[in-house]
Amino acid sequence: MPSLSEETGGRIDHLEPGAVIGIVGGGQLGRMMALSARYHGFRIGVLDPTPDCPVDQVADFQIVADYDDQDAIRQLAERSDVLTYEFENVDADALDKVRDQVAIPQGTDLLRTTQDRVHEKTFINKHGAATARWRQVDGMDDLEKALDELGYPAVLKTRTGGYDGHGQVVLRSQEDLDQVVERTRRDEADGQGFPPSILEGFVDFACEASILVTGNGDRYVAFPLVRNDHRHNILHMTLAPAGVGHEVEEEARQLALRLAEGFELAGTLAIELFLMQDGSLVVNELAPRPHNSGHYTIEACSMDQFDAHIRGIAGWPLDQPRLLSPAVMVNVLGQHVKPVLKELTAHPEWNLHDYGKAEVRTNRKMGHLTVLTDDPQATARDLEATGCWDDLR
Ligand code: AMP
Predict the structure, then answer these.
(1) Whether pLDDT at 193 is above 90
(2) Could you tell me whether strands 20-24 and 43-48 are parallel, antiparallel, or unpaired per DSSP bridges?
(3) Cα–Cα distance between 134 and 146 in angstroms, integer?
(4) Do 105 and 268 form a contact (C-beta atoms < 8 A)?
(5) pLDDT tier at 12, thresholds 50, 70, 90
(6) How many whole angstroms separate alpha carbon 77 and alpha carbon 349?
């Protein structure tokens, strides 16, 4: 049986093979966590509303229920030794209620901080990292005042619940503001208040980047800085390494380790960054879990982000991950499945990962592929030249 250490707030000293890891959320991140947990010798349970979800296909059992169903969370806790989650919008109160039954090595402070953009940015700034200039906005008066201070263009984002650009709007002019005013009037007429929000100054970045960091509550290790290309607010491609010079990469590493220490991190955390023309780094947001931009680590690193996550929450020691080869990762969305499968036979170098989702939908993440290469830029061009991703041009 695992030994649960009281002083560390439910951290595991060393989870032994055979123990059960319960995952809240049954999508691709949970599936890749589960595959890793599986070959470490753990058993896996999952809570997800969709029967035969991607995690269930590789797990020991599934509880079919909504993520915030307290009874279902309790059932999962009863049948597990450790709980983790694959997405950040899990009900932290519901998890707190089962902490006497199961270890939750990541704790719930990390969740609460990263679920709310005000708490998140306050935490980041307090740990010596830059964010976009930002103001808390709780109504139209706040918004007008914040716009006076930050100026156009600016980005209005809901404090909670946003992802992949959902729940955010770019304000470039008075006309955009007028539209927000009109929408707010309509919402008020429907009995809905102004959603708690923040206004961010628009960051004129040179490129987007990210870095992963993993902890076991005691030691923290960072992965290489990578470069990300988004299309319509969804990650399209990751180039590893970012290739932006040692100094910037080292600064990102130090920043990641500082945040990890601040959280006393157990498991994997992703830090999404804007890289400025002058080489400085601005944190966009945090994700308290493995991340789409870290999928390249499966083939390209000595320890991948999922192994690192599992080892971290299991209280196992963490070795410094090394990049064994540069790599390019590209997402396969619903509209790319057919062209990619057609091209696959001509590309032995494509490492395809299929998430096992039953329903193919436009813009739904169905899989990804990773190519190991000596020249990520050239490989990115070769991938685009296949035409599979032409809809994103
Ligand atoms: P988010 O949902 O916060 O990750 O934002 C989605 C995407 O919107 C980011 O990946 C950026 O491309 C863009 N974005 C978000 N915030 C800003 C900002 N303050 N300035 C410029 N672009 C932004």
Answers:
(1) no
(2) parallel
(3) 8
(4) no
(5) confident
(6) 41
CA of 22 to the centre of ligand 1 (A): 32
Q: Ligand 1 atom closest to Cα of 228?
A: 10
Task: Report the pLDDT value the prediction gives residue 167, as an integer from 0 to 100.
Answer: 78
Q: Mean pLDDT over all residues of the chain?
A: 95
Alpha-carbon distance of 355 to 70, in angstroms, equals 27
User: What is the model's pTM?
Assistant: 0.96
User: Would you say the C-alpha torsion 305, 310, 314, 316 has a positive or negative sign?
Assistant: negative
Hey, whose CA ends up nearest to atom 1 of ligand 1? 165
Please report, as a single letter, which amino acid is at residue 139. G
Q: Which domains does the chain have, with CATH numbers?
A: 3-105 (3.40.50.20), 133-201 (3.30.1490.20), 205-392 (3.30.470.20)
Report CA(165)–ligand 1 centroid distance (Å).
7
Token pair 């927000």 is found at: 180
- Contact 12/313 with Cβ under 8 angstroms? yes
- Looking up tokens 């490989």, which residue turns up? 379
Peptide bond into 153 cis (omega under 30): yes
